[in-house]
Amino acid sequence: MELIFLVMGLMLSFIMAMNIGGNDAANPTSVAVGSGTVSLRKALLLFAIFTILGAVLQGHMVMKTIGRGVVSEIDILGAFIIVLSANIWIFFATMRGMAISTTHSIVSAVIGYGLLKYGISGINFNVIFTILISWITSPLCSFSLSMILFYLLKSIIKDSFEKFFKIMIIFALAFSAYSFGANDVANASGVYITIASKLGNMPDMNAMFILSLFSSLGIIMGGVIFGHRVIRTLAFRITRFDITSALAAGLANALVVYLFTVIPYMIFGYGMPISTSYAAVGAILGAGAARKSINKIITLKLFSYWIFTVPFNIILSMTLLWIFSVLF
After folding, report:
1. pTM for the whole thing?
2. Spatial separation of the C-alpha atoms in residues 46 and 43, rounded to whole Å
3. Element (H, E) at 250
4. Using a CB cutoff of 8 Å and minimum separation of 24, what contacts does 3-8 make?
5. Burial of 113 from C-beta contacts in 10 A (0-12 / 13-18 / 19+)
6. Residue 315, Cβ neighbours under 10 Å: how many?
7. 3-state secondary structure 70-83
8. DSSP H or E run through 283
9. Cα–Cα distance, 168 to 114 (Å, whole number)
10. CB atoms within 10 A of CB 241
């Protein structure tokens, strides 16, 4: 029975990794594709290479249990319910080309589990408050930085610099993909670590290294198979990129994700959890606002998915937990 739970945990982790890849592959690649710097195929190849590098070199440093700190404890059934709920929502959004936060999907599902399992008193609202702060601050920071970079670059750009700027756009893609692999691969592995720890088989460093590689392969597979839907939304439907706006958005996205991870870690000993999707969209909106070119309909649709992520996953998680508890 223990082996069955561990195998099922691995299967769910891989499915979660594919869903994360399908939705989040757009975050590092969209501006490079939208500006015509690289093709969709080449962007996904670069995404694959640098996501693996980030995952295997630094993924073990941030590998964590799903929802750690939101509730006091998650049992094996709860781990399955949480990931199942998040998978349903992420897949639904991805098929409609909407960039959402996979992290917030999981956290919201944890809240739903905690409300039904422990009641409102069992929820750590300090952790939730921290997550909400990051939800707001990361897109605002990337939005502002993207606008600032756009005006700075616009003042110095020359036709002879175009090739250099394209190289920098590719660098921003690679840097973003590396940071994404190092930080977000843990979301895919969370359910397996939860189950393994409950069974007394907490993965050691070598196992976490292998798990990072395993999850990154799932992320890449998801990105290749259905990542194009969200990539096209961020690349073409929010705003139209030129070289300047693409570089501004790409650098802003990469820097915000990296700095939100590194600076709090240097000061407090832990990186601040942010959504790479929100940071990417914020950077794109900043560049679009600087050029006075934003598709308001698509933007409002994206925001509505961000808002619905929380209540949808809470309700779905509670419903599935109740059904499975009755049945089993």
Report:
1. 0.89
2. 5
3. helix 243-268
4. 5/76, 5/195, 5/199, 6/192, 6/195, 6/196, 6/199, 6/201, 8/80, 8/195
5. buried
6. 15
7. CECCCCHHHHHHHH
8. helix 276-290
9. 45
10. 28
Helix (H, G, I), strand (E, B) or coil at 68: strand
Q: Assess contact for 109 and 82: CB atoms under 8 A.
A: yes
Q: Dihedral of CA 46/47/50/52: which sign?
A: negative
Whether residue 305 has pLDDT greater than 70: yes
Q: Are 146 and 284 in contact (CB under 8 A)?
A: yes
Q: Is the alpha carbon torsion for 239, 240, 245, 246 positive or negative?
A: positive
Query: Would you tell me how many other CB atoms lie within 10 Å of the CB of residue 265?
Result: 14
CA angle 54, 60, 65 (to 5 degrees): 120
Helix H segments across 63-124?
A: 76-95, 102-118
Longest CA–CA span in the chain (Å) reads 68
For residues 118 and 317, what is the distance between their CA atoms, to the nearest angstrom? 14
Question: Per-residue pLDDT tens for 195-242?
Answer: 777 776 766 667 777 888 888 899 999 999 999 999 999 999 999 999
Is 170 in contact with 45 (CB distance < 8 Å)?
Answer: no
